[in-house]
Amino acid sequence: MSKVITKSNFNEEVINSDKPILVDFFSKTCGPCRMLAPVLDAIAEETTDFYVGKVCIDDELPLALEFSISVVPTLLVFKEGKCLETFTGYRNKEEILKIMERFI
């Protein structure tokens, strides 16, 4: 299951994560975000190599601004407390898993 990431739990869930974490910055009104959600949910259910987290920019605007999110969906890959990769737009499951292979 995807982790809900907020400003208050960001350090605990992302920075201090014991595994790489893919963080999806999304908006409730974004069509591509809604298309991506079930893909990320499936990945989160199937993998144990990394975590999947979600940040709703509608609710967590300060966190989105902190990472200069200007387009949704934007996905950030964190490992050992550092953001190592950023990509935007819809990606299918295979593309996302291929990207994540480099960090596990």
Short synopsis of the structure:
The protein is built from 4 helices and 5 strands. The chain is α/β, with parallel strands linked by helices and 104 residues long.
Walk me through the structure.
This protein is α/β, with parallel strands linked by helices and about 100 residues long. It has one domain: Glutaredoxin. It is built from four helices and five strands; from the N terminus they run E-H-E-H-E-H-E-E-H. The chain has helices at about 10-15, 30-45, 60-65, 95-100; strands at about 5, 20-25, 50-55, 75-80, 80-90. The chain has a five-stranded mixed β-sheet with strand order 1-3-2-4-5. The longest helix is centred in the middle third of the chain and has 16 residues, at about 30-45. The radius of gyration is 12 Å and the shape is globular. The model has no long low-confidence stretch (mean pLDDT about 95).
Strand content: 25-35%
Compute the CA-based radius of gyration: 12 Å
Uncertain runs are: none
**Which secondary-structure class do the elements indicate?**
alpha/beta
Distance between the termini: 18 Å
Reading side by side through the largest sheet, how are the strands ordered?
A: 1-3-2-4-5
The CATH architecture would be 3-Layer(aba) Sandwich
Number of E-state strands = 5
Overall 3D geometry? globular
What's the structural blueprint in terms of helices and strands?
Elements: E1 3-4, H1 10-15, E2 21-26, H2 31-46, E3 51-56, H3 61-66, E4 74-79, E5 82-88, H4 93-101
Parallel strand pairs: 1-3, 2-3
Antiparallel strand pairs: 2-4, 4-5
